[in-house]
Specification:
Protein name: PhiRv2 prophage protein
Low-confidence stretches: 20-41, 43-48, 416-428
Helix content: 40-55%
Radius of gyration: 24 Å
Number of helices: 16
Number of domains: 2
CATH superfamily of the largest domain: P-loop containing nucleotide triphosphate hydrolases
Order of helices and strands: HHEHEHEHHHEEEHEHHHHHEHHEEH
CATH topology of the largest domain: Rossmann fold
Shape: globular
Pfam families: DUF3631
Number of strands: 10
């Protein structure tokens, strides 16, 4: 029977997961992909590698044409911020039809700085193309818990900023936030008491989810998401208006054909271990998209890895620019380098150099620029604290020693972001 994208998968369709669900053979995340007739995955190639040295694209499968068609439909109604973002959204939609195969359920964070950036319109298109869409508007967390089974729906959350926008909102929606955080990885359950006798019951949380909102979502969600940063259309940019009566039938037909292509590939998708251009949580998040691309073959393995490398690097740069994140560490490293890698700097001298950087936010931080107390609070998150230090002139002052930053620099702002595809990924 042909799968429509809404009916449940049969026991023969789904890969069997062990109690601790890790796809593939023992030795997951080795960076080696098993041979596959459909994968066609090229060796990991840097996004900026010259075309003449890149491996030729593998022969396309029927899935490659379906992805092309899906991409064209999305672009018809929404202007994405880049070709890479359009490819990423296309692969994410297709990945929802293989959810029983995944170890991680990537979130799609559709964010923008203001209204009318196309966030809700993109969610309209996703609703008609993803596997078993479940809109969470006015839906209680309890209802969502009970809707997530071995064949999870795809959660669609519009106006997510109304859930997470303020501490009061976040507290009010703590259950939904916890579900969205836990549901990124398989075998993460929530326990609730049910029935008149209040019997404890475990509810599954694993499900792919798209969240749209103004401004960034909480870090715990952004870190588990393929991030699409939407923009308002510029003058001269136009899209086709989306009309449910006219446009939905074609999207539903496409969804049905994508599901029919994906259904026989569940076991193969679960076994694939693709070479990735990133590592750690970013690799966990992007792996389903890259696997879909490898199954489709044609240009898609190359396009998927290029989108992954470029979009992850862009988010890393955004995080580094965030004052309360790795930005302060990177700027302090630049100060120590400019001072010829001295062993220590007084707090006063370090703050002076930080405020001198016209491209940094530190001169305008607070009322009088970044203060010793503000600096200490930021660095405390990285287990770095001031102390008595001996300066080059022999005097002792309150300050920071360079060696206290070495571990944090290595972990949060490495000098080289791209990683060799064969590097082993850590589990976190």
């Amino acid at each position: 029977m042909e799968h429509t994208g809404t009916e449940p998968y049969s026991a023969h369709d789904k890969p069997s997961w062990p109690p601790v669900a890790i796809p593939g053979r023992p030795g997951h995340h080795t960076g080696e992909a098993p041979a596959s007739a459909n994968s066609g995955a090229p060796a990991a190639v840097s996004a900026d590698q010259p075309a003449e040295t890149a491996a030729p694209d593998p022969a396309p499968t029927a899935g490659s044409a379906l992805l092309d068609e899906l991409r064209a439909h999305i672009a018809k109604f929404v202007i994405l911020p880049s070709p890479e973002a359009l490819n990423a959204v296309t692969l994410w939609v297709a990945a929802t039809h293989l959810q029983p195969a995944w170890q991680h359920a990537p979130r799609l964070a559709v964010v923008g700085p203001a209204k009318r950036c196309g966030k809700s319109r993109l969610l309209d298109v996703l609703t008609e193309t993803v596997h078993e869409p479940m809109l969470t508007v006015n839906t209680t967390p309890a209802a969502v818990f009970r809707s997530i089974t071995d064949e999870p729906p795809t959660l669609l959350v519009d106006e997510a900023d109304t859930i997470f926008g303020t501490p009061k909102m976040a507290e009010k929606n703590e259950e939904m936030r916890g579900l969205l955080n836990a549901g990124h990885q398989r075998n993460r359950y929530v326990t609730r008491v049910v029935g008149n006798d209040h019997t404890p019951h475990k509810f599954a949380t694993f499900a792919m989810a798209a969240l749209a909102g103004i401004g960034d979502l909480p870090d715990t969600i952004m870190d588990r998401a393929v991030v699409i940063r939407m923009r308002r259309r510029a003058e001269g940019e136009s899209v086709k208006p989306f009309r449910s009566r006219r446009d939905t039938p074609a999207l539903h037909d496409l969804r049905k054909r994508i599901a029919a292509w994906a259904r026989p590939l569940l076991d193969e998708a679960a076994d694939l271990e693709p070479a990735m251009p990133v590592e750690d949580r970013a690799a966990d998040t992007w792996e389903p998209l890259v696997i879909v691309a490898d199954l489709a073959a044609g240009p898609w393995p190359r396009l998927a890895r290029a989108a992954c490398a470029q979009m992850v690097a862009a988010e890393a740069a955004t995080e580094e620019d965030h004052p309360s994140g790795a930005r302060i560490l990177a700027d302090i490293r630049r100060v120590f380098v400019a001072q010829r890698e001295v062993d220590s700097l007084s707090t006063e001298e370090l703050l002076h150099h930080l405020r001198q950087d016209l491209e940094s936010p530190w001169a305008e931080w607070g009322r009088n620029g970044l203060s010793p107390r503000d600096l200490g609070a930021m660095l405390r998150d990285f287990d770095i604290r001031p102390g008595n230090v001996r300066l080059a002139d022999g005097t002792q002052r309150k300050g920071y020693t360079r060696n206290k930053f070495l571990d944090a620099w290595r972990r949060y702002c490495p000098t080289v972001h791209p990683v060799d595809a064969g590097t082993t990924r850590s589990e976190d």
